[in-house]
Structures are given as structure tokens and as C-alpha cells.
Amino acid sequence: MTTILSRRPQLQHLTAQLDELKQRGTYFHLRVLEDMQNPVCTYDGRRVINLASNNYLGLTSHPKLIEAAVDATHKYGVGSGAVRTIAGTMRIHMELEEKIARFKNVEACVVFQSGFAANAGTVSSILGKEDFILSDELNHASIIDGARLSRAKIKVFRHKDVAHCEELLRELEKEPGRKLIITDGVFSMDGDIGPVDKLADLAERYGAIMMVDDAHASGVLGRNGRGSIDHFGCHGRVDIQVGTLSKAIGALGGYVCGSRDLIDYLYHRARPFLFSTSHPPSVAATCIAAFDLLETEPERIDRLWENTRYFKTELGRSGFNIGGITTPASESPITPIIIGDGGATMSFSRALFDEGVMATGIGFPTVPEGKARIRTIMTSEHTREQLDQALETIERVARKVGVLA
Ligand SMILES: *Cc1c(COP(=O)(O)O)cnc(C)c1O
Fold first, then answer.
1. Which of 84, 207, 372, 405 has its CA 20 to 30 A from that of 289?
2. Mean pLDDT, the chain, integer
């Protein structure tokens, strides 16, 4: 069957593009994990130190979360059976939303199937074609897609450039449409923190809606991982807070926090909420248990930051370009090793893997052309020995493949 399909001409343009990727050295295959998502695990049959996951707090394999998922499955089954608005809202979905709202200190919360769905579904539904979106140039793809779907006019400001954002707002002052300012709390490819407080000032001054995507900040920044709004003391000043349940929380999903009316509106208008089935009960139960852990095991977050400071300081000392963040008081557990060329980055990543370090190469279109990088992510569960071994390997392999002098 497959051989017959592969000979059909209809999709030949895809094959041509894949050939081009192969020529440029940026073609990849998916590395397959054969055990749990842990600091040391097995991909493609090889034991590696894992510097690539978003499992910041090691919760993907936490016994209490596993138990919560199994218990919920026995009690409520494996699926919810429908979209939320038809028949698929289970008691446990409501419990999770109430828990997140309390944790984030907001009136209400709605959970989506993913962070991607939360962003895209929210941005696309709250604005129309007469409105404006002011978006940081490095904002996540799901924000960009949501902005396009909304048909609002998109104004991109330079990365973290508050003055540029204000300039754009001033140009729009006479426009009757609504304005939405949106930034990532922590930027996923560079690991730096968005100027949430200063953008919130602007939003107030210009009457704009303020939205923050805290996918990489939730469980990481702020008291007990409450996120960038808590980190900046901006409670009550951000209209829309998005978070993910797929990274530090260890399971899957995304959520939006804000006023009761915002959430009620999304119940009625956000298309992923209306047209895609809700989480299995096991996922909701897992997430509830994870938010409990943020309160009862805050030492995980302390360990995450200790590891982050150590790893970032040592990497910077080796002479890598780690994205301008060289101070030991690093901004987040994400540390890019910027190489530039896509092909060189991918072969560096492959060489690292062969030597026992899993650190994913990331190139265009995830990051701009010429900014290809190895992205490393710390977790609370890496031991000092594992970090030292990873650092030694990274430096040695970098010299061998010629990306470090
Ligand atoms: C990962 C990520 C998302 C998407 O979250 P998922 O739950 O994985 O869909 C959204 N925004 C940012 C900034 C992210 O890094």
C-alpha cells in the first residue's frame, strides 16, 4: 500500500522540500523515548543525560501523580466522551479549573486540550478584524496562529522592546479598534523573561488588554511557581493569563485565567473548547495532584533554580554564546547555546547524542534563520554528577566538531 502511495505525483512538492532539508543538513528524524521522561533515560536505544525536556520539576514520573491518574481511570474511565459544551464536562474538570483559579489568584479558569489550543482559541475569539494585536517578535507560534485566525491587524514589536510597543500604541491612538498587548512570560527558545510589568503599565496607559503566555513560567517563576505575574507582583493587572499543564505540571493541557466573564465568554466562543473533546479524567486528576505538589514540595523549585544557576554559570564560563544571559542570576532554566548555522547545529546535536547527551538542535522556522541553537533545559531532578558529566561532554564535543574554539 505505502509503496503505491509514495509513487503518486500529488505530493511530490513535499518530497522536493524534504530533499532540500536533507541537502542543508537540517532534516531530522524523531528520537524515540523508550522509558520514562527522566534526567537519564533511553532514546533510540541509547542511555543519555536528558537536557531536552520541559519536565522542570520531574513531575512526569512522580508516584503521587501516577497514582492520581490510575485512581481516576478506575473511577471515571479513560475518556470524557464529548466536548465540554455537549456532555464532556466532568466534575474533575471543574475541580481542576477551580484549583488553578485559586492558585493563580483570579476569579476563574478554563482548561483547554493544550497550551497551543488555549492561546490560539483565546486570541482568535476575543478580537475581530477591526482590532489590533501588539505582539513581541519572539512570541510563541500558537499566539501568532491565534492572531491570524482573529483577523485583527498584527503589529509586531521588537523583542522585549517596551518603547517600540509604546510607539506602535501611539500610532494607533486614533483607531477605534481594541488593542491587545501580548508577551510570553518566559520566551521558549531564549529563556529570557518578558517585561510583563512594563507592558502592563503601557496597557493601563493606553487602555489595552494585557495578555501573558506563561507556559514556561508556570511552576518555575513566582511563589510556588505561580508564574511571571506573581514574579513581577502584577496581580490584577493582567487580563488574560495563559499557562500550560504540559511542561512543569508534567501532564497535558493549557489553561486561561482571568475574570468570570472572560472565562464564560471562552466557554461560548473559543473554538477548541467548543469543537474538541475534553481531557480524559486521568489527565485532570494528574494536574490536580501536581498543583498540590507545588504547595507541598516547593523544594523542587528551589532545586530547579540551584541547578539552573550552576549549569548556566558553567556553560557561560566555557565560552559559548548562551544568548547574552551570562550573569549567574540567570533568568530561567532554559539556556540556549547559539551556534548560528542550522546544519552545524544539527550535527553538533547528533554528536552530543552519540556521546550520551540529549540536547535538541533547533533551527528555522522555530527560530529565525542564522540563529540556530542547541537548547538546554534544567530540571530539579538532575544531580550535580549528571550536570558535570553533561558539561564536560558538551565542551569536549563542541571542540571536536568545531563550534567552540
Ligand atoms: C509550549 C508552549 C506552548 C504550548 O503549550 P502546549 O501545552 O505544549 O500545547 C504555548 N506557549 C509557549 C510559550 C510554549 O512554550
1. 84
2. 95
Q: Which of 54, 71, 25 is nearest to 249 (CA)?
A: 54
Share of the chain above pLDDT 90, in %: 89
The three three-digit cell numbers of residue 32, written as one number: 524515540
How far is Cα 349 from Cα 359, in angstroms, rounded to an integer? 6
Task: Label residue 366 by pLDDT band (50, 70, 90).
Answer: confident
pLDDT digits (tens, 9 = 90+) for 126-167: 999 999 999 999 999 999 999 999 999 999 999 999 999 999
H helix and E strand count, the chain: 15, 13
CA 10–ligand 1 middle distance (angstroms):
33
Burial 136-173 (b: 16+ CB within 10 A, else e): bebbbebbbebbeebebbebbbeebebebbbebbeebe
Whole-angstrom distance, CA of residue 187 vs CA of residue 6: 39
Q: Which of 62, 216, 371, 382 is catalytic?
A: 216
pTM, two decimals, is 0.95
Average pLDDT over residues 44-70: 98
Which residue type sits at 137?
E
* DSSP at 192: P
Give the separation between CA 215 and CA 288, rounded to whole angstroms.
17
Averaged pLDDT for residues 382-390: 98
Phi then psi for residue 136, to 5 deg, are: -60, 140
Mean pLDDT of 66-82: 98
157, 137 contact by CB (below 8 A): yes
Average pLDDT of span 97-104? 98
Instruction: Report the nearest-CA residue for atom 1 of ligand 1.
Output: 215
282-339 pLDDT per residue, tens: 999 999 999 999 999 999 999 999 999 999 999 989 999 998 654 433 589 999 999 9
Q: How many residues comprise the chain?
A: 405
Structural domains in the chain, CATH included, are 25-54+298-401 (3.90.1150.10), 61-296 (3.40.640.10)
Beta 132-136 vs 179-184: how paired, if at all?
parallel
Catalytic annotation present for 74? no
CB 105 within 8 A of CB 238: no
Task: Ligand 1, residue 254: give the atom nearest the CA.
Answer: 7
Testing ligand 1's pocket by substitution, the residue of 55, 56, 111, 116 carrying the most ligand atoms inside 8 A of its CB is 116
Q: Running DSSP on this structure, what letter comes out for residue 280?
A: P
Q: Pick the atom of ligand 1 nearest to 245's CA.
A: 7
